[in-house]
Amino acid sequence: MKKNIYFNHDGGVDDLISLFLLLKMENVKLTGVSVIPADCYLEPAVFASRKIIDRFGQGDLDVAESNSRGKNPFPKDWRMHAFYVDALPILNESGKVETPVAEKPAHLHMIDCLRATEGKTTLLFTGPLTDLARALDVAPDIEEKIERLVWMGGTFREAGNVAEPEHDGTAEWNVFWDPEAAGRVWESKIEIDLVALESTNQVPLTVDVRNRWAAERKYIGVDFLGQCYAMVPPLVHFATNSTYYLWDVLTTAFVGNSDLVKVKRINSIVHTNGPSQGRTVETDEGRQVNLVYDVNRDEFFDYITELAKQA
Ligand code: AGV
Ligand code: CA
């Protein structure tokens, strides 16, 4: 039995690689894709998504554009990454783009996809939760059609990954971009699996990983991984604010193979205001979430590299 997955992403290198990997998972049926302009610019991220589906997928998907806006914008340098992926020769070889843009905006597109899909659907979100929060406000009935939400977001460590004026550094970026959206989703009854910085910190992009992909570039999908991860800075001597991790790719790998990680139940709240906005905190008063806190790093890299060889 294939799992139904609806994928909402925000066009970073690891978001777009996640789309590629989902298309290669034999146990996944991708029911819809949408793009939110958070850690990307919308146009190149939507083009790149359509071209990845053309090149590596098969038929009947469209890509919806989000018209959501966040409270705390991402740095421009990071948002530029989607332009580089969109320009890769491997995605432009055919000279045409066939996968259509959906008529409706992302949150309404997701509602339609959930309703039209038989049974329940797992939501995979690798950017902020704005489109889900809006969809729940418009159509609260969709909660029953949602199997669970798998989200790359949050951290319960002291340090988050936001380094911005007027913030205390405790938040993870996908929560920080729209803290109220996370707050809205926390109020729902949806089962939430959080792939937080606890586990993603264990899978930095390193030169070793790059070299492994370089050595196997005769496989077109492994070459695609290598080309994409040539665009972003690896961990060399120490982690900086721009160091790249495989945040979303780990989250996506968890959807395909939950044996790669360890999960524990905790209760948590989200700070929606002030200098800690976007911070997730463990507390008995909070709602229950399943926290992915540990990963088998070697098995994870083997898994995604093997998937890429299927391309
Ligand atoms: O906080 C991680 C999220 C993931 O969804 N994104 C990047 C991933 O797609 C934001 C982000 C944090 N640090 C970054 C980010 C960095 N150094 N470069 C680009 N994006
Ligand atoms: Ca992302």
UniProtKB/TrEMBL annotation:
The keyword Ribosomal protein does not apply. Pfam families: IU_nuc_hydro. GO terms for cellular component: cytosol. GO terms for molecular function: purine nucleosidase activity. InterPro entries: Inosine/uridine_hydrolase_dom, IUNH, Ribo_hydro-like. Keywords: Glycosidase, Hydrolase. GO terms for biological process: purine nucleoside catabolic process. Residues 5-302 form the Inosine/uridine-preferring nucleoside hydrolase domain. Transmembrane segments: none annotated. This is ABC transporter substrate-binding protein. It comes from Heyndrickxia oleronia. The lineage of its organism: Bacteria, Bacillati, Bacillota, Bacilli, Bacillales.
